[in-house]
Description:
The chain is mainly α.
Amino acid sequence: MLKKFKYFFVxxxxxxxxxxxxxxxxxxxxxxxxFNYAMQLYNQEDYEEAVQEFQNFLLQYSGSAFNxxxxxxxxxxxxxxxxxxxxxxxxxxxxxxxxxxxxxPETQFMLAESYYQLAPPYQLDQAYTKKAIEEFQVFIDFFxxxxxxxxxxxxxxxxxxxxxxxxxxxxxxxxxxxxxxxAIKYYAFVADTYHxxxxxPISLYxxxxxxxxxxxxxxxxxxxxxxxxxxxxxxxxNDIKKxxxxxxxxxx
Length: 252
């Protein structure tokens, strides 16, 4: 029993010493030493401590030469912790307050990436998805030679597909409920707004079917011509051409 108690006591002391060793008196640090200490915590992936030290550093030395460095890594620390909304807020502060900083290109990308991480599945509200697209596009527009542009473009395409799917699925729901005018409206929106996505051809196809069903022949013929010109190799092309032939025959 005594041996077990001694073993537990040794472990307790080791735990206390380990935790106390992380409590560093930063009041005697120079500005550079303090920043390097916060960076050391960040590089060691001690993000809980790092976020506190970067916050304290920015409060104490807001006008220092390390201000933009600290602001960027403050945002990165939140990002690493999965606190993407806080990360986005800190990244946006750097862009707004220190626009001449060499960190701005990377910060703009990380701002977009933060919203990308927040973007939910298509079934949910897509405000963050739209925000991510907006911020990635700002990155591309302002830094077109950056090596991350290709990644930004891929993510814009992915997120745009998500927006298109949400609208397409809404169209399907209205069609199943036999609210055909509403379904046509949603399908038209997808075909016109997201014409480069995989949901555009199927939306236009279903729109044409509904227009024919409702006797909207002129609208159907116009959409058929659009489909043929826009998607000449699509899997629905033969069906579309058959519809066109039938409509032409009925007009004679």
